[in-house]
Specification:
six-stranded mixed beta sheet; globular; alpha/beta; single chain; D-tyrosyl-trna(Tyr) Deacylase, Chain: A; two-stranded antiparallel ribbon; 2 helices; 146 residues
């Protein structure tokens, strides 16, 4: 599993030109699920996200986590995190999980993350064509992998 986390000032996600989800200050998490992933890593990653100190304290140092700042979370499935570009110019997505397995893990991850954060988890729509408009704060972008 790969998680690309961006600290944002705000974000909105549109599907078919209509806002589907939006958040204020917090994090947008893009989640890529591989063929090898299963439910065993969800607890560890959800806990890590809740403790990740990527938000500034009163001195401008990254010492606060999502719960400390009462931040919001938008979780978006993104199979393209498993793009393989070693051969040729067209990415291969052979390492990404099949949609049936990926959606189960994605939904389970949402439920697991809810156990660790004190905010509602907003989401995209699995498999949809989404347009995401965000303002990255910092910029701060972190990659977590299991």
């Amino acid at each position: 599993m790969k998680l690309l986390i961006q600290r944002v000032i705000n974000c909105n996600l549109k599907i078919e030109k209509k806002i589907f989800s939006s958040i204020g200050y917090g994090m947008v998490i893009f989640i890529g699920i591989s063929q090898k992933d299963d439910l065993s890593v969800l607890n560890k990653l959800a806990s890590k996200i809740s403790k990740l100190r990527i938000f500034n304290d009163e001195f401008g140092k990254m010492n606060k986590n999502i719960n400390d700042i009462n931040g919001e979370i938008l979780l978006v499935s993104q199979f393209t995190l498993y793009a393989d570009t070693k051969k040729g110019n067209r990415p291969s997505f052979i390492k990404a999980a099949d949609p049936e397995n990926a959606i189960k893990i994605y939904n389970s991850f949402i439920e697991e993350l809810k156990k660790f954060v004190n905010t509602k988890i907003k989401t995209g729509k699995f498999g949809a064509d989404m347009k995401i408009n965000l303002i990255n704060d910092g910029p701060v972008t972190i990659i977590l992998e299991n």
